[in-house]
Write a structure and sequence with these properties.
- This protein is of the alpha+beta class and 183 residues long.
- It has one domain.
- It is built from four helices and six strands, in the order βαββββαβαα.
- Strand 4 and strand 5 form a beta hairpin.
- The protein binds iron/sulfur cluster (SF4) (2 copies).
Length: 183
């Protein structure tokens, strides 16, 4: 599909049945986004996390989405193919109720940037490192929708700044934007 006023959406399709829980995706994501690049491999800094439960045979990769300032109210258990998944297992948000998708030092939210960088990577690193082919990179064209309301952005940033201070928040926003120069 070729839309003149469209934009490209990048996603990662996850085939849960193929994931073996090796966590290579976490290692490369954390390493690629370390500062300086490749200087550490702490999975807590990864923007993809693998929920693992060997007894229940659950290996579920989830990559980080948007930050949310508040915990959600409605939570459900999921049973798929006889396996029971926790209420938050499929959630991609960096959220106050759990520890994942937060920088360990500052607690600031992490968000997947599809490995936007300069030069651009051919495919996201986690996809390239997943030898089990559980992660599949996809791009599709969609019609341009309205830009997010400035008020919403402002409210979200202000809530973060109240907790962490503006300097840390602005640093995090710069990183979440994703375009990093080398060096
Ligand atoms: S690299 Fe692939 S197989 Fe290994 S944990 Fe990540 S998604 Fe699963
Ligand atoms: S696409 Fe890149 S930033 Fe996103 S989870 Fe994978 S390695 Fe991390």
């Amino acid at each position: 599909m070729n839309l003149s006023n469209g934009r490209t959406i990048k996603t990662i399709r996850i085939d849960v049945a193929k994931c073996n829980g090796c966590r290579a995706c976490e290692v490369i994501c954390a390493s690629f986004h370390a500062k300086p690049r490749y200087s550490s491999t702490n999975p807590a800094r990864s923007r993809i996390r693998v929920i693992r439960d060997q007894v229940a045979d659950i290996y579920l990769p989830v990559y980080a989405g948007k930050y949310t300032a508040a915990e959600c109210a409605g939570r459900d258990k999921y049973v798929i193919d006889g396996r029971e998944y926790d209420e938050c297992a499929f959630c991609r948000a960096s959220c106050p109720s759990r520890d994942i998708f937060k920088e360990p030092d500052s607690d600031l939210p992490l968000k997947c940037d599809m490995c936007e960088s300069d030069p651009t990577v051919k495919e996201p690193w986690c996809v390239q490192w997943c030898l089990a082919e559980a992660l599949v990179f996809e791009e599709r064209q969609v019609a341009e929708d309205k830009a997010p309301a400035l008020d919403d952005v402002d409210i979200g940033l202000t809530a973060l700044a109240n907790t962490h201070g503006w300097p840390k928040v602005l640093d995090a926003v710069g990183r979440m934007g994703g375009t990093e120069k080398k060096g």
